[in-house]
Design a protein that fits this description.
It is built from 4 helices and no strands. It has about 100 residues and is mostly helical. It is rod-shaped, with a radius of gyration of 27 Å. Keywords: Membrane, Transmembrane, Transmembrane helix.
Length: about 100
């Protein structure tokens, strides 16, 4: 699955996951607060909104961090492959069986 996401910005899927979890957790918590503890409706709405926006923001930041980390790993792997390929193609290694004059 991570191969299919390679090269893509994961901040948007992270935000989507965060907002979805925020909505689910916020609705459950709002129901418990309203029914079980008789909390005011405005307070329940503010808590629900805060959880939804907070988890969305956490998902966005986490997705952006993962994207940056993957891009750095890909750049390092590409640099290592390029340097290894350049090392293999040095003139003395291209035709080791032939003398220098040929």
């Amino acid at each position: 699955m991570m191969k299919r996401l390679e090269g893509r910005n994961l901040a948007h899927p992270g935000c989507l996951i965060g907002v979805t979890l925020g909505l689910i957790i916020g609705i459950v918590l709002a129901g418990v607060l309203a029914a079980g503890f008789n909390v005011a409706f405005n307070t329940v709405l503010l808590i629900w909104l805060g959880i939804t926006i907070g988890l969305g923001l956490v998902g966005w930041i986490w997705g952006a961090y993962i994207t940056t980390r993957q891009q750095l790993a890909a750049m390092r792997a590409n640099a290592n492959a390029t340097s290894e390929a350049a090392e293999r193609n040095t003139p003395e290694r291209q035709n080791p069986d032939l003398p220098e004059g040929q």
